[in-house]
Design a protein that fits this description.
heterodimer; A: alpha/beta; Rossmann fold; 5-stranded parallel beta sheet; 13 helices; 19% strand; globular; B: mainly alpha; ABC transporter involved in vitamin B12 uptake, BtuC; two-stranded antiparallel ribbon; two-stranded antiparallel sheet; 11 helices; 4 strands; 73% helix
């Protein structure tokens, strides 16, 4: 039989080709890392570089890369160069645990940065706490993340603050008192935001007229939105991630609802408007900073990021950049790469002038900083309001 | 009442998408007794071919012509992919047991998914606007968008066309013969390799049509988009009686309406529970599915 032989040869050629391509890629990486092992300070970074929330990971990685490159160009830290090792979590909890274990056990990093999704930071954070390696999460906003233990820090604000800020904005500025909520019931982030938003809204005299849930893999939200439509709300709060939000906005408009949709920092991604298009006009979300902010620190960072990567940074990039610098400042201050010393130095951070605002670390290892409300007008982001932490909050934290 | 009607429309739209994908599943199964797990991934490839075609041609003005053009290119491209898959993955193992083919199908499915992630990137992409969507107010507050109407019409149209091809043409007769008995069909002078290849090409083209309509409606595409929806469409095909073309559409509609009604009146968290509960109940009462029966001609 001639045919099977031909087929087999073809298959073998194909397989060999695939293997040689993948081997080539793999072999080039370890070489560079091996040469440089001994005298470099290694930091571990775990992010969703592929998967559903991949833009967070990709931008976060770029933020870290930029900070590392800048510091290395100025001679590094403690006279040593810095090397960041990146691990992909694919946006999955299990992979996050494995990634952090690998970074600490195999790569022997002195500190860890990551993840963006709270669920994944909880998984990775547990490992860091167990091995007593300091971790800073640049952008996980769920309160439970830093409650893991004394080695886990965050430099973004919390979901309680974020949910509360949006509820204040809805009632005070938009005069929206009847609000429906559509949240992702598989995500700690989304569930947390819904809780804090709803609580503040009720305190301010508003009413949650409908509460509907969706799952991460959903693409059709018409059943939930039809139910929401029946409750005649003034606005819909969707504390989800950008991929679903874009589709939810479109399907909301398809059902003939023109009310504003409100959200949180999970919205922030260049893909948001790409997917949601004009359906997002007149919607608002709370965020850490905005690239349109005229603050010179922000515009300098945005400009340099644009030249380096040819794209506008999202929030994750800014937060990752700040997190990296806070870690470097701590290493410098500790004058050591010993994990306890770094931990203590991070916990003493006061008014660090980051591009996402002035950052202080509280007793609970959370950041005290302000939030912005960003509106979407004709497919562009516009900063609507800057909201500082409410006094009692600050008092509590200090 | 208004709410119920709106939910019913939502369900029919969702069900029509399942039906579109289930058509290809059921046809390939009918002829080959092969559950082509890669079908959902050909659906995904169809969407991506459409995405790149629209971007390469620089379609800026949405129009019916643009939609037809993109859909034709994507259907042709996917049919070619279907032929390649059949030739290099399924044909070599056809003479072995069913299990071998099934495992190969799962392998092809994973290969397509992860090759697509490698080539297209894992980040979800926004499908270009090639068809202007508008809301049509039916009565009161009940609305339907024109792309939803298109999905319903196309799924019924393709069901009718497929029935015509299978039952009214010579090619269809050959397909049915192959489905009855491959060896006897060969003895009767039917070019079985050609018929099977044709079935795959047709099934893949159907998947691509579904992929384009899905992308126009949901606007977001990613390499793993065919995974869950392919599984649901498979369930729809089984529900309607796998191998039966009208059954695939019926099963799809039933599944879609059930999902939406459960989300709308109970909780979205339970929609899959109920959808699969219906499947189990139907299969207990009618093991061959709603329209399937042991004696019926299956294609």
């Amino acid at each position: 039989m001639k045919q099977p032989l031909l087929l087999k040869t073809l298959l073998i050629i194909l397989l060999v080709a695939i293997f040689s391509i993948s081997c080539e890629k793999k072999s080039s990486q370890p070489e560079t890392t091996q040469k440089s092992t001994s005298d470099k300070i290694k930091i571990g970074v775990y992010y969703p570089l592929t998967g559903d929330i991949a833009t967070f990971g990709q931008f976060g990685k770029k933020g870290v890369e930029m900070a590392v490159a800048e510091v290395n160009a100025q001679g590094g830290l403690l006279g040593r160069q810095i090397e960041a090792i990146y691990e992909d979590t694919r946006g999955q909890q299990q992979d996050s645990t494995i990634a952090v274990q690998k970074l600490i056990d195999k790569d022997k990093v002195v500190a860890v940065l990551g993840e963006s999704a709270s669920t994944n930071s909880l998984a990775g954070g547990a490992v860091c706490q167990e091995k007593k390696i300091p971790m800073i999460t640049p952008s996980s906003t769920n309160p439970t993340v830093t409650q893991i233990g004394d080695y886990i820090f965050r430099i973004c604000f919390l979901d309680d603050f974020q949910g509360e800020v949006m509820a204040r904005f809805a009632v005070n500025t938009l005069k929206a008192k009847r609000v429906a909520v559509l949240y992702d019931n598989g995500s700690d982030y989304s569930i947390g935001l819904d809780e804090f938003f709803s609580a503040t809204l009720k305190k301010l005299g508003g009413e949650i007229v409908a509460k509907e849930a969706y799952q991460k893999a959903d693409v059709d939200f018409s059943a939930q939105l039809t139910k929401i439509k029946g409750s005649k709300p003034d606005a819909i709060y969707v504390p989800g991630y950008y991929t679903q939000v874009g589709q939810i906005a479109q399907q909301t408009r398809k059902l003939g609802m023109t009310i504003p949709i409100l959200g949180a920092d999970g919205w922030d991604s260049p893909s948001l408007i790409e997917i949601g298009k004009e359906a997002l006009n007149g919607c608002y979300f709370s965020n850490h900073y905005n690239v349109e902010d005229p603050d010179p620190r922000v515009s300098k960072f945005v400009g340099e990021f644009k030249t380096k990567y040819n794209s506008t940074p999202d929030t994750t990039a800014g937060l990752a950049y700040d997190a990296t610098y806070i870690l470097f400042a701590a290493i410098k201050k500790a004058n050591s790469t010993e994990s306890k010393a770094i931990r203590d130095a991070i916990s003493e951070t006061k008014n660090y002038p980051g591009i996402t605002g002035d950052i202080s670390i509280s007793k609970e290892r959370n950041a005290i900083k302000s939030a912005v409300i960003v509106g979407i007008e004709k497919g562009r982001y516009v900063v609507k309001e800057k909201m500082s932490p409410i006094d009692q909050n600050v008092a509590e934290n200090k | 009442m208004e709410l119920f009607l709106q939910q019913l429309i939502n369900g029919i739209v969702q069900g029509s998408i399942y039906a579109l994908i289930a058509l290809g599943y059921t046809m390939v199964y009918g002829v080959l007794r092969l559950i082509n797990f890669a079908h959902g991934d050909v659906f995904m490839l169809g969407a991506f071919i459409g995405f790149y075609t629209a971007n390469l041609l620089g379609i800026s003005q949405p129009s019916v012509g643009a939609l037809i053009l993109v859909m034709t290119v994507s259907m042709a491209g996917s049919a070619a992919v279907g032929l390649v898959i059949e030739r290099f993955a399924y044909r070599p193992v056809r003479k072995f047991s069913r299990l071998t083919s099934l495992i190969t199908a799962i392998g092809v499915s994973l290969l397509l998914e992860y090759a697509a992630q490698f080539v297209f990137g894992a980040t979800p992409k926004s499908f270009p606007t090639i068809f202007e969507t508008q809301n049509i107010s039916l009565f009161g507050n009940v609305t339907i968008s024109n792309d939803s109407i298109l999905i319903i019409i196309v799924s019924i149209f393709l069901m009718v066309m497929l029935n015509l091809i299978v039952f009214k043409t010579k090619l269809g007769k050959a397909m049915r013969a192959v489905s009855f008995n491959l060896d006897v069909a060969k003895l009767m002078g039917i070019n079985t390799d050609f018929i099977i290849a044709f079935t795959f090409a047709l099934g893949s083209a159907l998947a691509a049509a579904a992929g384009i309509l899905y992308s126009v409606h949901f606007t977001k595409i990613d390499p793993l988009m065919g995974l869950l929806i392919g599984l649901k469409a498979f369930v729809a095909a089984v529900l309607g009686g796998i191998g039966n073309i009208t059954g695939a559409v019926l099963g799809g509609l039933l599944l879609g309406i059930a999902e939406i009604m459960v989300s709308g009146y109970i909780s979205s968290s339970y929609k899959d529970v109920f959808a699969f509960l219906i499947l189990i109940l139907v299969l207990i009462v009618k093991p061959a599915g709603l329209l399937g029966s042991a004696a019926q001609e299956k294609v």
